[in-house]
Amino acid sequence: MKALAVLSLIAAVSLAQEVVPLDEAQRGARKVTDTLGKPSDAPFTTEVDITKPQAIRAGKVGLLIIPDKTLTLETLGRASDSITPIGQLWTLNVSLGKNGEPAPNDKIRFLTVSDGEKDLEVQLYFVGATKNAEGKLELVVFAKDKEPLIRVPLAKAETTSTQNLPIEISGRKDDDNTGTLSLKVLGHFAADLTVKRPAE
What is the separation of C-alpha 56 from the centre of its chain, rounded to a whole number of angstroms? Predict the structure, then answer.
């Protein structure tokens, strides 16, 4: 198996997903984080745990979430108006959506990752948590800028559950260009993000 089989291409967003085996997701996490290194322009510091990623794919779409090592219910419980790191979200040929449109390319952090045979252009999003002015917990997603690209509620899950991994993701297709990516965090919190066919 190729190290980046978790990050393959598709012509349309479908998100009728398959969960990638953990060992394959771990290889992909190691590859992308080795390529990233420690960027000096990151919006906040993350120290991700490449032993506990989760990846899904649908056809040739791939999404990979790598949790921060400091992510616990206690750290989320202490969240304030500063950023509490949650992890890194990596995508290929699918962008996060904002205001009904894919995030513009000039706002996205792109990296080129080699799998040994070809180069793949992936997108990196830094994911954190913060409390808004009303004191409610939000998921904040950063791309290239120092300000969040997206803010969505990080709500208490309707029912708590035990998770095998700190963050678990799933997706569904909404239409030919749009899907919903759902994140479950530590079995107690949940948030939805919109994903779109990338801007040309």
Answer: 11
